[in-house]
Amino acid sequence: MLYSQLFPKAKKTAPKDAESANAKYLVQGGFVHQEMAGVYSWLPLGLRVLTKVENIIREEMNALGAQELLMPALQPKENWQTTKRWEGFEVLFKLKSKIGGEAALGPTHEEIITPLVGAYINSYNDLPLALYQIQNKYRDELRVKAGVLRGREFGMKDLYSFHKDEKDLEDYYERVAKSYLKIFKRCGLDAVRVRATGGAFSKFSDEFQVITPSGEDTIYYCDKCKIHYNSELVKDGKCTEGHKLEKGEKAVEVGNIFKLKTKFSDAFDLKFLDKDGKEKRVIMGCYGIGTTRLVGTIVEINHDDKGIIWPEEVVPYNMHLLALFGKDEKMVKKISTACLSFLRKQESGGVEVLFDDRTDVSAGEKFAVADLLGISERIVISEKTLANNSIEIKNRQTGKTKMEKL
Ligand SMILES: [Zn+2]
User: Fold this and answer.
1) With contact defined as beta carbons under 8 Å apart, do 182 and 190 qualify?
2) Could you tell me if residue 311 is left (phi over 0), alpha (psi between -120 and 50 degrees) or otherwise beta?
3) 235 C-alpha to center of ligand 1: Å?
4) Which end of the chain, C or N, has fewer beta carbons within 10 A?
5) Who surrounds ion ligand 1 at CB < 5 A?
């Protein structure tokens, strides 16, 4: 990809109102563009990162035996009345149609997937079943955070599992928890599993949190239980087992998993015929990861004062090639030829290269953009490197530089 062709170019200065690293660098680098409070467009560079994150999640969901589907964002009001959440779900977007009736703009999909699965499964032979999607969700949040950490429209992977008994749900739940830690690790994040309140049908749920000063949650580690607790479960500085806790740490929630048990299968009468000839309610679990929030969290954890430092698996491009042309016309031609031949060689080997081919900006400006965009491998081809028939390679993570023969 030629940087001269890329839409849009990085801005010279950061947005004035940026409160966090992700808001500052994602906007300045041209990864995202804010449309209104909590609503962003994902621009070509940002979409490349988001797609890589989504594909890591896809691979790990498929490894769990889950199948991908896509459900609608527009959801019938009746389904939300069935679960008593039309009034009860505080941040639900409600829409009136010109042809009459109302619909919800999906903040989550239990109201769709439960009756959907009910239309197709009959017996214990159809279970267990796990289905997931990656889709935008909508929540009419009163408070939105600057950047992509808490939005009113945001990307999410939601997985739903269906089981014939609680033991099967427990086993699958633990497999998902392991898979989540692997997903976050592949995204360059050390997430911790945090015990949280469970809601109506189970005592606890689990959150996955990444510790960072810009986090809006506070989590506590209990030395005796060897468990992290979220703030809802901590009373008077003690864990649920009564142990005294150390000071909490700020963290961002990147995922959560719930044992729904029969909460939704009761509401929609989702049943199956068991081996013993009896009809039973299906046992359910649900598991979310905020995909756009995950990209924001990656930036919060992986940056310095010059810009982003993308972890290897989610880089927008593998290489950022800079041509430093200088003023001599013959040399410009020579450098240009060397760059294009290097570019072709890399691309034919499957390496994704962003090539800063601009002739009207200084070397200093190209270096500043490379640091801001945060691609791990920066390659420089200049009069100096060509004098040794070489390229200069700088690693954005380590800052180390080396020369290699062209
Ligand atoms: Zn404890």
Assistant:
1) no
2) beta
3) 12
4) C
5) 222, 224-225, 239, 241, 243
Q: Which residues pair with 272 in a beta bridge?
A: 280
Q: At what angle do helices 44-63 and 291-301 cross, to 10 degrees?
A: 110
Assigned token pair, 209: 């949190």
What is the spatial distance between Cα 307 and Cα 329, in angstroms, rounded to a whole number?
33
Residue 237 CA to ligand 1 center (angstroms) comes to 11
User: Separation of 251 CA from ligand 1 center, angstroms?
Assistant: 19
> Can you give the pLDDT at residue 205?
96
Say how many Å lie between the CA of residue 347 and the centre of ligand 1.
Answer: 54
CA of 232 from ligand 1 middle (Å) equals 14
Which whole-number Å values give the CA distances from 66 to 144, 162, 179, 242, in the listed order?
32, 11, 12, 38
Which tokens hold the place of 103? 């619909």
User: Cα–chain-centroid distance for residue 200?
Assistant: 28
What pLDDT digit, counting tens, does each position of 75-103 carry?
Answer: 999 999 999 999 999 999 999 999 999 99
Q: For the segment 310-367, what is each residue's pLDDT rounded down to a tens digit?
A: 999 999 999 999 999 989 999 999 999 999 999 999 999 999 999 999 999 999 999 9
CB-based contacts of 105, cutoff 8 Å, min separation 6:
73, 74, 75, 92, 93, 94, 95, 138
C-alpha 119 to ligand 1 mean position (Å)? 44
